[in-house]
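Table S2 (text version). Query chain:
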Amino acid sequence: MTKFRHPVFTARHLERMEEIMRDVCLDFETELAEFNGETNHVHLLVNFPPKVALSRLVNSLKGVSSRRMRQEFPRLAQHYYRANKLWSGSYFAGSVGGAPISILRQYIEQQNRPG
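Corresponding structure-token output:
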């Protein structure tokens, strides 16, 4: 979720954000299986082994994406305010072991569709 839930992302921002987050996942030897986003947040489905610390992965996803987005889209800086942070400090992570990947993908794909 963006800082203060401000709606800052366009379709182009989200396309680039997905590329950046895929690169970060590769660095962590994890797989970004699904990505979807709205104007003020993103949904990720990540396959990762137990050796990867979730907090380190999330911090890297947020930090790298914030830094690169600010470099590549300077106009986003107006939404960073004084903290120079695009993302809020919080996140939600859930374990979905055993659920079919097709159901999880469908859930994430439908997150930005109205009712």
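Notes on Table S2: The domain at 3-112 is CATH 3.30.70.1290 (Alpha-Beta Plaits). The chain has a mean pLDDT of 84.
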